[in-house]
Structures are given as structure tokens and as C-alpha cells.
């Protein structure tokens, strides 16, 4: 069966800046991306039905689509079984939210036509990533769900280092090639998953739930609190709490990151700190890309949202609920604005436009360091974001 994850326009803008560079189903929450979760449950490859500006990197599915799933929805066993039991021309909803539909869909059309479909209300709870803060808000639960999904019926590699202390041994899983020395792992309140060829250096303390991606490293004396996901090819130091760092990004030095989501190809300079709680304990407001204004999150703890390819200088201090777009470079004394548009260069005192040619040149250098070749599709996505952000 040809299954595709829909990148619906009504959800995309709510999840900027992360969906500026990827479909909603390529968002990581827990250990896996949303697409990877669905692929594990269905035991097959699943395509993206991405918006046109992303199709160079995320190509359209080939042929007719038989099952369309909303890309913001995270699967679980009950939901997957309900979807598998859908009949032709039936669609599943939850409180008005489109979840999935079975029928015949044209892969050339990104706007899904559901006229004539019989609607079925899903009676159980389901997890949908409607806003950027839903990523870290749901991360602990998704870490546990993905841990169960990935480790069922499998045996963890052993920790050979005699100086590493482990609490909750049965809740720790190591893939092949993990290197860990003189660390403390506490999995009593949540699982700890260390992916292939990941490294945990001396003195690091990690509390689960936690996931470390393939080829990623936790540096010496790092303090990793509950609810943290580190994607592949990252270097992480300092203190991190209830946050997601996407692949190929570095926070290698001291500094605090809490209730935050950091995109791919980002770098946080030494002693970069974000606030995740206002001094008056009020609800945190965050910039909304739909209304171009700040909206209430309903959260008391809410830190940083940083889009792909953005960077901070050493000693950068970021205020509660800060949003940084794509390809921005933040530096200078004091607190920068709590909304920094894509392709910004500067800080509190002055902010100018980061030239697209220089941004792409930097991206090429960063890709080269990771032995990843930049494609024309990658450059085109960045140019599209630049054109749209500078025309406002």
C-alpha cells in the first residue's frame, strides 16, 4: 500500500521556523521523527506529500496514494490498528482534526480533496504536534513510546566500563559501538537510549528519559536532565533539560538549554544560556508566524525555538520564549529581541540582513565538516526562505 504523510498548509505555519526547511512529518519528537514512527508501525517506507518549495529535497510519492495520514499526528498501536481497519473512502477525525483517510489520492495534488468520504470519529486520545512547543511538551512521553518500539524483542549491548554507574539497568539500551566512560546514567524514572557509535564522556550525568543520536557525543561533565533528545551527529555539553536538538547541531560548551527546540546545523557558542521561566512566573508568550504577533502558549516554562543553520556567539543570553528563524547569527551584549527573523545578523543594539550568498557559503563549510555534500535542493530551500523573509 502506498502511504503518504500530508504536509498540510494549515499546520505548517504554526510550526515555523522548523517547517520552513522540512515537512511537518520530518519533525523529531522522542527518539524518532514522525515519519520514522509511522514507518516502524507499518513496517514499510512512507513518503512525504510535501509543499512545492520542499519537493526538490522531499520528492513527491510515485503513483497513486492509497492511504493519506496527517503529518502532525504521532502514531500508537491503537491508532495504527484503527487506521488499518478503515474501509475505502473513509476518513478518521479527532475533535475535528483530520487524522487519516483511505482512498485514491493524486500524488500531484498537495491539497487533499476529502469530499464524499465518510467521517469516523476516533474515540481514544492521540498526540498531534500543533505548535512548536508541543515538541518538547510531548517529548518525555514520546521518548518512552519510541524506546518501547525500538527495543522490543532486542538485547542491549553491555556497558563494559567499570567506572560507569547505572541506575535502572533494564531501562538502558545501547546500540553497537557506544563508547561510555566514568558516567552516571539514571534510568529509574525514564529510559535512556544510546544510538550506534554515540559517545558519553567522563563525568557526564544523564537522567532519563533521554536519547542520544547516532555518532553524537555528550561532553565531559555535562548535566543532562529529563526529557532530552539529541539527534545524530551532535556535540553536547553544559546543562540541558526537556529539550530537543536536531541532527548535526552543536552545543559543545557550558551554558543552559531548557524547554527548547534547536534545529539542524545550528551552533550555540560557549556560555549561551536561554531563560525558560519569567521572573514573575507569568505565562510565556511566543511569536506567531500566522498573525505576526505574540500569542500565549499556556506554559510557564518555555525557552528557545531556533531554526536551522542559526548560531549564537559566546556568552549570548536569550530571553524566555525566544524564536530565531533560519540562517540567523546572534551576538552582542544584552538580551536580543524575543523574535529574530530568518537571515538576521546582530543582536540587541543592531540587526541587519544576513546576505544569502554568505549564508550559503557558511552552510557549505558546515556541511563539509560533517562530510555531507550540499545539494542544489538545499540551496534552493534557503533562497526561497530568504526571498520570502526579506520581502515582508
Describe what this molecule looks like in 3D.
The chain is α/β, with parallel strands linked by helices. The protein folds into two domains: 3-129, Spore Coat Polysaccharide Biosynthesis Protein SpsA, Chain A; 136-390, Hexapeptide repeat proteins (UDP N-Acetylglucosamine Acyltransferase, domain 1, 3 Solenoid). It is 17% helix and 28% strand. It contains seven helices and 37 strands. The chain has a nine-stranded parallel beta sheet. A six-stranded mixed beta sheet has the order 2-1-3-6-5-7, with no helix packed on it. Strand 5 and strand 6 form a beta hairpin.
Mean pLDDT: 94
Overall outline: globular
| Structure classification | alpha/beta
Count of helical regions: 7
Nutshell version of this structure?
Keywords: Acyltransferase, Transferase. By secondary structure, the protein is α/β, with parallel strands linked by helices.
Provide the fold topology.
Layout lengths: L2 E4 L2 H4 L21 H9 L4 E3 L15 E6 L2 E2 L2 H8 L5 E5 L2 E9 L12 E4 L5 E2 L4 H5 L1 H13 L13 E3 L4 E3 L4 E2 L3 E3 L5 E3 L4 E2 L4 E3 L2 E3 L4 E2 L4 E2 L3 E3 L4 E2 L2 E3 L2 E2 L4 E2 L4 E3 L2 E2 L4 E2 L4 E2 L10 E4 L4 E4 L7 E3 L4 E2 L4 E2 L3 E3 L4 E2 L8 E2 L3 E3 L4 E3 L2 H14 L6 H15 L2
Amino acid at each position: 500500500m502506498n502511504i503518504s504523510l500530508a504536509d498540510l498548509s494549515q499546520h505548517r505555519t504554526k510550526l515555523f521556523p522548523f517547517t520552513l526547511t522540512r515537512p511537518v512529518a520530518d519533525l523529531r519528537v522522542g527518539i524518532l521523527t514522525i515519519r520514522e514512527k509511522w514507518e516502524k508501525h507499518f513496517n514499510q517506507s512512507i513518503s512525504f506529500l510535501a509543499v512545492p518549495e520542499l519537493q526538490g529535497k522531499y520528492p513527491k510519492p510515485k503513483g497513486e496514494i492509497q492511504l493519506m495520514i496527517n503529518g502532525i499526528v504521532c502514531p500508537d498501536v491503537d491508532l495504527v490498528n484503527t487506521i488499518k481497519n478503515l474501509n475505502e473512502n473513509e476518513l478518521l477525525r479527532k475533535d475535528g482534526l483530520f487524522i487519516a483517510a483511505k482512498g485514491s489520492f493524486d500524488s500531484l495534488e498537495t491539497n487533499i480533496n476529502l469530499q464524499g468520504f465518510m467521517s469516523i470519529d476516533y474515540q481514544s486520545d492521540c498526540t498531534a504536534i500543533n505548535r512548536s512547543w508541543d515538541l518538547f511538551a510531548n517529548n518525555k512521553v514520546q521518548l518512552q513510546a519510541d524506546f518501547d518500539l525500538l527495543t522490543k524483542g532486542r538485547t542491549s549491548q553491555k556497558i563494559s566500563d567499570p567506572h560507569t554507574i547505572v541506575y535502572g539497568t533494564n531501562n538502558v539500551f545501547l546500540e553497537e559501538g557506544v563508547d561510555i566512560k566514568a558516567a552516571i546514567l539514571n534510568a529509574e524514572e525514564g529510559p535512556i537510549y544510546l544510538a550506534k557509535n554515540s559517545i558519553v564522556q567522563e563525568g557526564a550525568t544523564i537522567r532519563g528519559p533521554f536519547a542520544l543520536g547516532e555518532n553524537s557525543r555528550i561532553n565531559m561533565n555535562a548535566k543532562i536532565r529529563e526529557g532530552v533528545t539529541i539527534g545524530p551527529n551532535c556535540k553536547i555539553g553544559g546543562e540541558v533539560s526537556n529539550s530537543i536538538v536536531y541532527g548535526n547541531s552543536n552545543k559543545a560548551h557550558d551554558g543552559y538549554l531548557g524547554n527548547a527546540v534547536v534545529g539542524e546545523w545550528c551552533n550555540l557558542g560557549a556560555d549561551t544560556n536561554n531563560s525558560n521561566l519569567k521572573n514573575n512566573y507569568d505565562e510565556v508568550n511566543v511569536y506567531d508566524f500566522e498573525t505576526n504577533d505574540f500569542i500565549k502558549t499556556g506554559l510557564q516554562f518555555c525557552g528557545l525555538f531556533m531554526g536551522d543553520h542559526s548560531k549564537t556567539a559566546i556568552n549570548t543570553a536569550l530571553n524566555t520564549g525566544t524564536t530565531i528563524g533560519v540562517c540567523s547569527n546572534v551576538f552582542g551584549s544584552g538580551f536580543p529581541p524575543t523574535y529574530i527573523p530568518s537571515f538576521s545578523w546582530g543582536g540587541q543594539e543592531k540587526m541587519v540582513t544576513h546576505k544569502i550568498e554568505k549564508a550559503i557559503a557558511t552552510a557549505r563549510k558546515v556541511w563539509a565538516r560533517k562530510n555531507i555534500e550540499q545539494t542544489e535542493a538545499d540551496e534552493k530551500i534557503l533562497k526561497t526562505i530568504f526571498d520570502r523573509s526579506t520581502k515582508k
